[in-house]
Specification:
The structure is a single chain. This protein is an alpha+beta fold. The protein has one domain: Alpha-D-Glucose-1,6-Bisphosphate, Chain A, domain 4 (2-Layer Sandwich). The chain is about 25% helix and about 50% strand. It is built from three helices and seven strands. Strands 1-7-6-5-4-3-2 form a seven-stranded antiparallel sheet. Strand 4 and strand 5 form a beta hairpin. Helix 2 packs across helix 3. The radius of gyration is 15 Å and the shape is globular. The model has no long low-confidence stretch (mean pLDDT about 90). This is Carbon monoxide dehydrogenase subunit G (CoxG).
Protein backbone atom coordinates (compact mmCIF):
# COMPACT_ATOMS: atom_id res chain seq x y z
CA UNK A 1 0.00 0.00 0.00
CA UNK A 2 1.29 3.46 -0.87
CA UNK A 3 0.05 6.89 0.20
CA UNK A 4 1.21 10.32 -0.84
CA UNK A 5 -0.04 13.81 -0.17
CA UNK A 6 1.10 17.34 0.57
CA UNK A 7 0.10 19.97 3.07
CA UNK A 8 0.90 23.68 3.35
CA UNK A 9 1.98 24.74 6.82
CA UNK A 10 2.06 28.43 7.70
CA UNK A 11 5.49 28.36 9.32
CA UNK A 12 9.11 28.64 8.11
CA UNK A 13 10.88 25.48 6.93
CA UNK A 14 13.28 25.39 9.93
CA UNK A 15 10.31 25.54 12.34
CA UNK A 16 8.53 22.70 10.54
CA UNK A 17 11.70 20.59 10.45
CA UNK A 18 12.34 21.19 14.17
CA UNK A 19 8.75 20.15 14.98
CA UNK A 20 9.12 16.94 12.95
CA UNK A 21 12.04 16.09 15.23
CA UNK A 22 10.29 17.06 18.48
CA UNK A 23 9.12 13.98 20.40
CA UNK A 24 6.41 15.90 22.28
CA UNK A 25 4.95 17.38 19.08
CA UNK A 26 4.93 13.98 17.38
CA UNK A 27 3.35 12.26 20.39
CA UNK A 28 0.60 14.87 20.42
CA UNK A 29 -0.11 14.44 16.68
CA UNK A 30 0.16 10.67 16.10
CA UNK A 31 -3.38 9.21 16.33
CA UNK A 32 -3.65 6.74 19.23
CA UNK A 33 -0.11 7.39 20.46
CA UNK A 34 0.29 6.39 24.11
CA UNK A 35 4.07 6.50 24.31
CA UNK A 36 6.92 7.82 22.18
CA UNK A 37 10.46 7.57 23.49
CA UNK A 38 13.87 8.29 22.06
CA UNK A 39 16.01 5.16 22.55
CA UNK A 40 19.00 6.18 20.43
CA UNK A 41 20.21 9.05 18.27
CA UNK A 42 17.94 8.17 15.35
CA UNK A 43 15.78 5.53 17.06
CA UNK A 44 12.31 5.96 18.54
CA UNK A 45 10.07 3.47 20.32
CA UNK A 46 6.30 3.87 20.17
CA UNK A 47 3.13 2.40 21.64
CA UNK A 48 0.02 3.17 19.61
CA UNK A 49 -3.58 1.97 19.92
CA UNK A 50 -5.42 1.72 16.59
CA UNK A 51 -8.86 0.59 15.52
CA UNK A 52 -9.10 -0.71 11.97
CA UNK A 53 -12.65 -1.79 11.22
CA UNK A 54 -13.65 -4.25 13.97
CA UNK A 55 -10.05 -4.87 15.09
CA UNK A 56 -8.58 -2.77 17.88
CA UNK A 57 -4.96 -3.41 18.71
CA UNK A 58 -2.08 -1.97 20.68
CA UNK A 59 1.06 -1.81 18.58
CA UNK A 60 4.54 -1.60 19.99
CA UNK A 61 7.30 -0.78 17.58
CA UNK A 62 10.47 0.95 16.57
CA UNK A 63 11.09 3.80 14.14
CA UNK A 64 14.45 4.64 12.58
CA UNK A 65 15.06 8.14 11.23
CA UNK A 66 17.36 8.99 8.33
CA UNK A 67 18.16 12.71 8.41
CA UNK A 68 20.73 12.64 5.58
CA UNK A 69 18.87 15.21 3.43
CA UNK A 70 17.95 17.49 6.35
CA UNK A 71 16.39 19.99 6.64
CA UNK A 72 14.80 19.68 3.18
CA UNK A 73 14.23 15.93 3.20
CA UNK A 74 14.39 12.94 5.46
CA UNK A 75 12.93 9.48 5.71
CA UNK A 76 11.83 7.07 8.37
CA UNK A 77 11.23 3.35 8.56
CA UNK A 78 9.51 1.33 11.21
CA UNK A 79 7.74 -1.80 12.23
CA UNK A 80 5.21 -2.61 14.87
CA UNK A 81 3.65 -5.70 16.37
CA UNK A 82 0.02 -5.79 17.44
CA UNK A 83 0.08 -9.28 18.95
CA UNK A 84 -2.85 -11.41 17.72
CA UNK A 85 -4.03 -8.52 15.51
CA UNK A 86 -0.92 -8.77 13.35
CA UNK A 87 1.96 -6.56 12.36
CA UNK A 88 2.69 -3.49 10.31
CA UNK A 89 5.91 -2.27 8.73
CA UNK A 90 6.72 0.54 6.40
CA UNK A 91 8.35 3.87 5.88
CA UNK A 92 7.93 7.39 4.58
CA UNK A 93 9.92 9.94 2.66
CA UNK A 94 9.26 13.57 3.59
CA UNK A 95 10.26 16.59 1.52
CA UNK A 96 10.03 20.18 2.82
CA UNK A 97 9.93 23.10 0.40
CA UNK A 98 9.89 26.80 1.24
CA UNK A 99 6.85 28.68 -0.07
CA UNK A 100 7.33 32.30 1.00
CA UNK A 101 6.74 32.40 4.75
CA UNK A 102 5.13 28.93 4.65
CA UNK A 103 6.39 25.40 4.03
CA UNK A 104 5.02 22.74 1.71
CA UNK A 105 5.38 19.27 3.26
CA UNK A 106 5.15 16.37 0.79
CA UNK A 107 5.23 12.76 1.84
CA UNK A 108 5.16 9.33 0.26
CA UNK A 109 4.53 6.42 2.59
CA UNK A 110 4.56 2.68 2.05
CA UNK A 111 3.19 0.08 4.44
CA UNK A 112 2.66 -3.66 4.63
CA UNK A 113 0.41 -5.40 7.12
CA UNK A 114 0.00 -9.02 8.09
CA UNK A 115 -2.04 -11.19 10.41
CA UNK A 116 -5.67 -10.56 11.34
CA UNK A 117 -5.46 -6.96 10.10
CA UNK A 118 -4.50 -8.08 6.59
CA UNK A 119 -7.67 -10.19 6.44
CA UNK A 120 -9.81 -7.03 6.70
CA UNK A 121 -9.18 -6.22 3.06
CA UNK A 122 -7.00 -3.70 1.33
CA UNK A 123 -9.79 -1.15 0.75
CA UNK A 124 -10.53 -0.82 4.50
CA UNK A 125 -6.83 -0.75 5.38
CA UNK A 126 -6.09 1.86 2.69
CA UNK A 127 -8.97 4.15 3.76
CA UNK A 128 -7.99 3.84 7.45
CA UNK A 129 -4.34 4.60 6.64
CA UNK A 130 -5.38 7.64 4.60
CA UNK A 131 -7.63 8.87 7.42
CA UNK A 132 -4.89 8.39 10.05
CA UNK A 133 -2.22 10.15 7.98
CA UNK A 134 -4.66 12.99 7.27
CA UNK A 135 -5.36 13.33 11.01
CA UNK A 136 -1.66 13.35 11.82
CA UNK A 137 -0.75 16.06 9.30
CA UNK A 138 -3.77 18.22 10.15
CA UNK A 139 -2.88 18.04 13.87
CA UNK A 140 0.77 18.63 13.06
CA UNK A 141 -0.01 21.73 11.00
CA UNK A 142 -2.26 23.10 13.78
CA UNK A 143 0.39 22.54 16.48
CA UNK A 144 3.19 24.09 14.40
CA UNK A 145 1.10 27.09 13.32
CA UNK A 146 -0.04 27.70 16.92
CA UNK A 147 3.59 27.80 18.08
Amino acid sequence: MELSDEIRINAPLQTVYAALNDIEVLKQCIPGCEELTEVGEDQLEAKVVLKIGPVKAKFGGEVTLDREGAPHAFSLAGQGNGGAAGFAKGGADVVLEEDGEATILRYTAKADVGGKIAQLGSRLIQSTAKKLSGKFFQSFAEVVEAA
